[in-house]
Each structure stands twice: as C-alpha cells, then as structure tokens.
Design goal:
Blueprint: E1 2-9, H1 22-28, E2 32-38, H2 43-49, H3 52-55, E3 58-65, H4 74-83, E4 87-93, H5 97-105, E5 111-112, H6 116-127
Parallel strand pairs: 1-2, 1-3, 3-4, 4-5
Amino acid sequence: MILYLYLQIKPIDQINFTSPLGTWIKDNFKDLLIAELDNHSESYLTSQALPLIPKADKIVLHIEASDKEELGSLKVLFEGLRKSKTSIDCIIHGKHTLLDKLLKMLAAKPKPYTNSERAKQLVEEILEDH
C-alpha cells in the first residue's frame, strides 16, 4: 500500500479542506490510501493516521507550510514517521525551519514546488517506480 499524506502547517484561515491534488490522485493512482491532516487537526484524528504508517510500502508526504506556524498535533505523526522503516518521499510548498530538520531526520529529501502542475509532475515521478 502507498500512503499519501497531505499535511498543512499553516494558519487556520489558510487551511484547505482537501488536497489540491486529491481528485487527480484518486483518478490516476487507484492503490493509494490518502490521509489529510493539518496542524490544527484534533489529536484523535492525527492518531487515526498513525497505524497506517507501518502498513505502508511507500509514503508520500505532500506538505504545505508557513514558517511561523507550530506543528500542533502533527508532532505525533512525525514521531511515527521517524520510527518507520518505510521509504518516504516528500514534495513541499513553502518553508518551515523545524520541518526542514524533521525531514532530514526522516532521510526525506523534499522536492519543492510552486504550482499544482509541478506538484503533479513530482508525484508522478515518485509513484512511477512503484
């Protein structure tokens, strides 16, 4: 199973309720399991995603970040990712100093993007090997 995690670390008034790539991903990659969380998510919701991590053969992190924002309940998720032995690929929009450090610990080399077309291209590149 491939786990696609759409994570937003942004002010609450900038949170999207679904991934901007969600429909495209569902149409093009049928074997993906999608979880969408943000730094304002309830800890219960974040804890529901944790058991998916060790079950995944591959993890794709799609992150949108604003540097001044706290990680909130996503800290628990990143701890679960840190403990995982699963391959992690990452695409990212925005900068976040603490997140950069966490991604280094995960050995995930984030690939930056500035628009949804580039994000789609990066996801295709990541998933074409699987």
